[in-house]
Amino acid sequence: MQNRQEKISQVVVTAGQMRDIEKRIFAAGMPVVALMEKVAGLIARRIQEIPPTSVKKAYSVPLNTPFLRESPQAGGSRVGILVGPGHNGGDALVVARELHFRGYEIWIYSPFSKLKELTSQHLQYAQSLGIPIYQTIEQLPDSDLLIDGLFGFGLERNLTDPIASAINQLNELSVPIYSIDLPSGLHTDTGEVLGTAIRATYTFCLGLWKLAFFQDQALEYLGKAELIDFDIPLADVEAVLKDAPRIKRITRATALATLPLPRPPVTHKYKEGHLLLICGSRRYAGGAILTGLGARASGVGMLSIAVPESLKSLLVSHLPEALIVGCPETETGAIAQLQLPENTDLSSFNAIACGPGLTRDATPIVQEVIKSDCPLILDADGLNILAQMGAIATLKKRQPVTVLTPHTGEFQRLFPDVPDAKHDRVQAVREAATQSGAVVLLKGARTAIANPQGAVWIVPESTPALARGGSGDVLTGLLGGLLAQAATKQIPVEDIVATAAWWHSQAGILAAQERTELGVDAFTLTQYLIKALT
Ligand SMILES: NC(=O)C1=CN([C@@H]2O[C@H](COP(=O)(O)OP(=O)(O)OC[C@H]3O[C@@H](n4cnc5c(N)ncnc54)[C@H](O)[C@@H]3O)[C@@H](O)[C@H]2O)[C@@H](O)CC1
Ligand SMILES: Nc1ncnc2c1ncn2[C@@H]1O[C@H](COP(=O)(O)OP(=O)(O)O)[C@@H](O)[C@H]1O
Ligand SMILES: [K+]
After folding, report:
1. Ligand nearest to the CA of 203
2. How far apart are CA 226 and CA 267, in angstroms?
3. In this structure, what DSSP letter does residue 264 have?
4. How far is the CA of 266 from the centre of ligand 2 (A)?
5. Within 10 Å of residue 518's Cβ, how many Cβ atoms?
6. Where is the YjeF C-terminal domain (predicted)?
7. 273: which of 158, 418, 421, 444 lies 20 to 30 Å off by Cα?
């Protein structure tokens, strides 16, 4: 059985759900005041523990910044506390008090005249302790660190002046900012910037992961993110989320548990899945190799790769274990016709992955595989051709599982009527999946996957090192190989898609750690896939 902490780390909530969960806790008798003490106490402890080097950011912290020192008494660390009108401000004031007693030099910026009662009481007490309080930005003394408690998930409308321009000025200072719950100014669900927002160096997400943490548009405001677990009972989480489609954060534990490991001791290659890749053209030969290498790393039992005849020897030389099917070509060097070996048809495979490097001249091939009764992944030109056919209408006619792996551009071509993926990627991918009946994987800095029932899986960490031509081809191959294995082992499709996406990101992260973010070309990425698991 998973432990509580692991289960909590998989949960992602909206602001509305978080509010309902808190309401239940308070209704059950937990005093608001006690919870604020507990939460802020945990934050204050983390602030003292975080080593300064772990939050240095080239663009926000000059190299010689006198950073928060481990022993403030010795160095006299100066911490500015930014206080908003609600309980986010209350949390910040408790942090101020705790750090004050730990020997930090504290000042408070409290620009709002009307505060919630609890927040107001904490401000009064801080004042009684002799902590200086300022109302205007111009008065603020220098500091080594700012704690952002302006707004949390209670922010409901766009920020306007004077607080908006104050935030802009605070962002300009070369001082690290630690945000409480989320950077003030971000929408808790969409991650949109509501007017303006704090650019945090570090964010302490309180209790449960909020959706904004996994929306691409929020990433540059979040800095490093950490969950502060303040013991929300799982029963309250379950009671609020009930049967609503879940948003799940993929963790290492869930991904590893989904992989087809260990293998049964008695098995054979066809029991470990047979994948057919359909990819490549004279123009795009390399993509076929990368897709093949991604599939190789999945451990798939049998790999067949259909390519134009002229690519056959190239593929054989890179993937000697694969069965390379050379197909007749169009004049332009695309696959003209699938010429599978004797006694083989599309239903012989456990999965088909189709698209990388095909060009649009392979339209009849894509039409043919869509009609097949085999689980199918469409990527790249496979998606562009599907878009031309009308994605939703075409997919509705298809019975077996279809997995689509678009990036944002492909997504918009496939689903022009789904609300803008730039505004809310999670909602967009969910709608695309429910409308089309396909499992949709929307690529990005934080890849999101949705199934037709509206459940969503999110890859919680990745690296911009993957923003390079060819890394998507690697994912398609890896996913294809895993899907073929899942089909023989009754592993749910969406779980295996989520696992593939997580694995791909982890390989990128590991490769970037060892080789810098510049050193992760797509071929190198394939070499890190197995390493990322061991
Ligand atoms: N009470 C507690 O002990 C707990 C507090 N938490 C903290 O409480 C926060 C939520 O507290 P609140 O519900 O008070 O909300 P916030 O503190 O996030 O802010 C809401 C306040 O800001 C005002 N406001 C909203 N939009 C504004 C705008 N555009 N311009 C100016 N004012 C605006 C609202 O009128 C309200 O007074 C969480 O983010 C977290 O930091 C919880 O996480 C943990 C438990
Ligand atoms: N900024 C980023 N951070 C993390 N991952 C990224 C980023 N940009 C792109 N990726 C990942 O890299 C891959 C790129 O795939 P794709 O756009 O299909 O390009 P290509 O097919 O040329 O490789 C996807 O898995 C995507 O999630
Ligand atoms: K905040």
Report:
1. 3
2. 42
3. P
4. 37
5. 9
6. 252-534
7. 444
Cα-based distances in Å from 488 to 481, 485, 502: 11, 5, 21
Q: How far apart are CA 94 and CA 258, in angstroms?
A: 42
Find out whether 181 is annotated in a ligand binding site: yes
Select from 404, 408, 466 the residue to mutate for testing ligand 2; criterion: most ligand atoms less than 8 Å from CB.
466
- From the CB of 39, is ligand 1 less than 6 Å away? yes
Identify whether 51 is preceded by a cis peptide bond (ω within 30 of 0): no
The answer to whether 179 and 388 are in contact (CB under 8 A) is: no
Residue 93 near residue 83 (C-beta atoms within 8 A) = yes
**ipTM of this complex:** 0.93
C-alpha 109 – ligand 1 centre gap (Å): 16
Structure tokens at 527: 């070499």
CA–centroid distance, residue 149 to ligand 1 (Å): 9
pLDDT along the chain (534 residues), means of 10: 88 97 98 98 95 48 39 63 98 98 97 98 98 97 97 94 97 96 98 97 98 97 97 97 94 97 94 97 96 98 98 98 98 96 95 97 98 98 98 96 97 93 92 98 98 98 98 98 95 97 98 98 98 96
Per-position DSSP letters for 316-376, written without gaps between them: HHH-TTSEEEEE-B-TTSSB-S--PPTT--GGGSSEEEE-TT--GGGHHHHHHHHHSSS-E
Protein residue closest via CA to atom 26 of ligand 1: 155
